[in-house]
Write a structure and sequence with these properties.
With 404 residues, the chain is α/β, with parallel strands linked by helices. Helix content is 36%, strand content 24%. It is built from 13 helices and 24 strands. The strands form 6 sheets. The chain has a 7-stranded mixed β-sheet. A hairpin with a 2-residue loop joins strand 4 and strand 5. Helix 5 crosses helix 6. 47% of the residues are buried. Bound molecules: flavin mononucleotide and fe (ii) ion (2 copies). The site of one fe (ii) ion has 5 residues, from loops. In the N-terminal section; belongs to the zinc metallo-hydrolase group 3 family. InterPro entries: Flavodoxin/NO_synth, Flavoprotein-like_sf, Metallo-B-lactamas, ODP_dom, RibonucZ/Hydroxyglut_hydro, Rubredoxin-O_OxRdtase. This is FprA family A-type flavoprotein.
Length: 404
């Protein structure tokens, strides 16, 4: 990839990571990109860097536009490893550049690099720098998604450099939303936005609403959103803003995800009539076996659906480990506005379904009780009971969905 001009004199100079499938434990079946941006003005300004093993790529891309030694300002919007770990390589080439960063960012960056050798300036919400024809304005976005996160707004160009917000883990030759929609599809792009939100931003819905409101109150017009991963929103930046607002406001489909695991397929045998019962009520239903599915995909599907049924056999009196692991992820993501229930096969004392409900309650989720448990293999009568369980759950989901 070469540098790509995204607006007059503003270049994408990042790297495409086609091969990554495990991104800090989050599966990325579509790979990702590390986006950073070079603004050619009187003071040449670089926004963010890339992951350390991609340093060569960004240096090459920058060098295709300008000698990196001429960079005057480096803005660090957040200090996560995938965006700062080639900062030292850039600073070796532009040692007199000034780094602009939030106060918290500076404290954290100190853990990565010896900062005493660099010019550092801390900035806060409302601060601006003039780099020639352009004014760049900073807006802190603490906990979205790191404590030091901020975004940078290029006033004259109306471009929001949004760090991870509004990004997607997609590796592609396309750089822009409209290009990707033609080469791949709108649905894939939307799915990747939901994936990112569900796996990273789910806990921060209220903050997202507040920040978007702050952007609107400030009257920042946004012509383009340039995130740190995936496609740049040039055709319709409002679309991704609305998707975020919708998700933060609890938008979900009136549908059900059945997320389960199984040792000897009895819990799996229960999932089939349960799914049929859900369908019989007219709701869409997707069935996901945990050990056959990347966790990030299961989390995404959980998030898309208003209702979820968790299926687990009992192993040594408790939940099956892959199910417990999934629930641990969900617990940390603190979902809201979802309804949930549980089912499973057991042999003697049982315990998995009860433990699942304990977890649901600790999360404050709306539950449908009781769940359904079957000893060993489900009989035809048990399958009938599972079908009815599915029907009833679907009805409860529809009822609950009316509140949104
Ligand atoms: C290693 C192992 C440990 C088990 N521990 C328990 C247990 O503590 N309590 C219980 O009720 N059943 C226990 N079971 C029985 C399973 O819950 C039972 O076989 C169930 O039908 C398995 O469902 P599945 O076919 O969906 O895996 C255990 C089974 C295995 C293989
Ligand atoms: Fe990040
Ligand atoms: Fe990132």
């Amino acid at each position: 990839m070469k540098a790509v001009e995204i607006k007059k004199d503003i270049y994408w100079v990042g790297a495409v990571d086609w091969a990554v499938r495990d991104f800090h434990g989050y599966e990325t079946p579509r790979g990702t990109t590390y986006n950073n941006y070079l603004i050619m003005d009187d003071e040449i300004t670089l926004i963010d860097t890339v992951k350390y093993d991609f340093a060569e790529y960004t240096i090459k891309n920058i060098s295709g536009v300008v000698d990196p030694a001429r960079i005057k300002n480096v803005i660090i919007n957040h200090i996560e490893n995938d965006h700062v770990t080639s900062l030292d390589r850039i600073m070796d080439l532009a040692p007199n550049a000034t780094i602009y960063i939030s106060e918290k960012g500076k404290k954290g960056l100190d853990r990565f690099f010896d900062l005493s050798r660099w010019n550092m300036k801390t900035v806060k919400t409302g601060d601006t720098i003039t780099i020639g024809k352009r004014t760049l304005e900073f807006l802190e976005t603490p906990m979205l998604h790191w404590p030091d996160s901020m975004v940078t707004y290029a006033r004259e160009d109306k471009v929001l450099f949004s760090q991870d917000a509004f990004g997607q883990h997609i590796a592609s030759a396309a750089r822009f939303d409209d290009e990707f929609e033609i080469s791949e599809s709108v649905a894939k792009l939307e799915d990747s936005v939901i994936d990112y939100y569900a796996n990273i931003l789910m806990p921060f819905g209220q903050m997202i609403k507040n920040k978007i409101a702050e952007i609107q109150t400030k009257g920042l017009e946004i012509d383009m959103i340039a995130p740190d991963h995936g496609l740049i929103w040039r055709k319709d930046p409002g679309k991704v803003l609305n998707m975020y607002l919708d998700m933060a406001n609890g938008k979900a489909r009136e549908s059900v995800a059945i997320i389960y695991d199984t040792m000897w397929q009895s819990t799996e045998k229960m999932a089939v009539p349960i799914a049929e019962g859900i369908r019989a009520e007219g709701l869409d239903c997707r069935v996901i076996k945990l050990r056959a599915t990347p966790t990030s995909v299961a989390i995404k599907e959980f998030w898309k659906c208003r209702g979820t049924l968790i299926g687990s056999p009992t192993l040594n009196n408790i939940l099956y480990p892959s199910v417990a692991e999934f629930l641990t992820h969900i617990r940390g993501l603190r979902p809201k506005n979802r309804i949930i229930g549980a089912f499973g096969s057991f042999g003697w004392g049982g315990g998995a379904v009860k433990e699942a409900y304990d977890v649901f309650k600790s999360m404050g989720l709306q539950t449908v009780e009781p769940g359904i448990q079957i000893a060993y293999r489900p009989s035809p009568t048990d399958e009938e009971a599972c079908f009815e369980f599915g029907r009833n759950f679907a009805r409860q989901v529809s009822e609950y969905h009316k509140g949104f």
